[in-house]
Amino acid sequence: MASLDAPPVGTPTIRWRVPEMHPEGRKFVFIAGALAMLGYWWFGWFAFWPLAGLTLWVALFFRDPVRVTPQGDGLIIAPADGLITMIERVPVPRELAGENGLGDAPLVRVSIFMSVFDVHINRAPIAGTIRQVVYISGKFVNASLDKASEDNERQHIVVEGRPDADGNARRIGFTQIAGQLARRIVPFVKPGDMVAAGQRIGLIRFGSRVDVYLPDDIAPQVALGQRSVAGETVLGRAGASAATGIAQ
């Protein structure tokens, strides 16, 4: 006979757990930890505690929490954690334009600004095949500024979804943009790779932005000032009404 305290059959037991740290962060945690020990050795507790706090922050920066990605046709999932700072129709970057990319007509761009306190693991907005990965070196101005999309170090990615019944495949382009503190964009994928929606595709070190370009049949489902969660927030949806006005 089942215990009265036992959960109903089929009910999962959910427990909170500390997010794991991505392997990319291990060397930085080691360096910060070594500095903390050296600070203690040379200057005592006065130097140790600030450097120990820095070590903890570095570990938290590279945290890689588990995410549950919504499933459904026509969904575009947020590729980054952060603040929705811009939703506007703009020309497509030349690296993403053309018949092998997103075309030449202006598209709606949704910009997600990641502070140094956000999770910086980026995820695929749709399931499909990576068609383009284009890296461009550049400056490191504030990633929240509009000109960062043209001036900063950045990486453009195009994902082509699975063909529908008519053989048409939707393409989603997005751009990882380095910020003032970010000094490297780390890719996890290359052209030809198959990805699932919400799969980890890269990270940007230390504060940055991600721009997502939505096709005309996709309506934004987020509003300015909203916070998105990579791999979970529905950024856009086919056949839906837009959640907010779009700057032209």
From TrEMBL:
Cofactor note text: Binds 1 pyruvoyl group covalently per subunit.
Modified residues (Pyruvic acid (Ser)): 208
Database matches in InterPro entries: PS_Dcarbxylase, PSD-A
Keywords: Cell membrane, Decarboxylase, Lipid biosynthesis, Lipid metabolism, Lyase, Membrane, Phospholipid biosynthesis, Phospholipid metabolism, Pyruvate, Transmembrane, Transmembrane helix, Zymogen
Pathway: Phospholipid metabolism; phosphatidylethanolamine biosynthesis; phosphatidylethanolamine from CDP-diacylglycerol: step 2/2
Transmembrane segments: 40-62
Domain of life, source organism: Bacteria
Site feature location: Cleavage (non-hydrolytic): 207-208
Function: Catalyzes the formation of phosphatidylethanolamine (PtdEtn) from phosphatidylserine (PtdSer).
Family per similarity comment: Belongs to the phosphatidylserine decarboxylase family. PSD-A subfamily.
Subunit structure: Heterodimer of a large membrane-associated beta subunit and a small pyruvoyl-containing alpha subunit.
Name of the molecule in the record: Phosphatidylserine decarboxylase proenzyme
Originating gene: psd
